[in-house]
Amino acid sequence: MGSSLSQKLITAGLSMAVGFVAGKVAELGWKAVTGQTAPQDDDGTASLVSVVAFAAVSAAIAAVAQRGVVNKTNKWFAPVEAVSEILSDLDQPAIAN
Question: What is the tens place of the pLDDT at every residue in 29-63?
Fold first, then answer.
């Protein structure tokens, strides 16, 4: 079953929104655990270890969040795709000559 254009657009939009929120959650979590602001790419004072650790943590949070978005949109669109498949089967003759 292929994904419809609307499903792809909704998934992409939700993924971007959830990715933004996941980044903010990672920043707040970093601040809560370390007591410091999250290291920035252009921050010359941050250690390499802290930059890599923050990147790994924020990427993991974003990946889990994105997987959740994909799973939810697949569940939302499953009935729509099933109906679409049934309707397309109705257009084809049952017995081919």
Answer: 999 999 988 887 676 778 888 888 999 999 999 99
For the CA atoms of the chain, what is the radius of gyration?
21
What pLDDT does residue 78 have?
76
Q: Position of tokens 């569940």?
A: 75
Cβ(46)–Cβ(52) below 8 Å: no
pTM of the predicted protein model:
0.68
DSSP secondary structure letters along 27-65: HHHHHHHHSSPPP-TT-TTS-HHHHHHHHHHHHHHHHHH
Q: Are 70 and 24 in contact (CB under 8 A)?
A: no
The Cα 8–Cα 33 span in angstroms is 36
Dig out the tokens for 63 from the structure: 């990946």
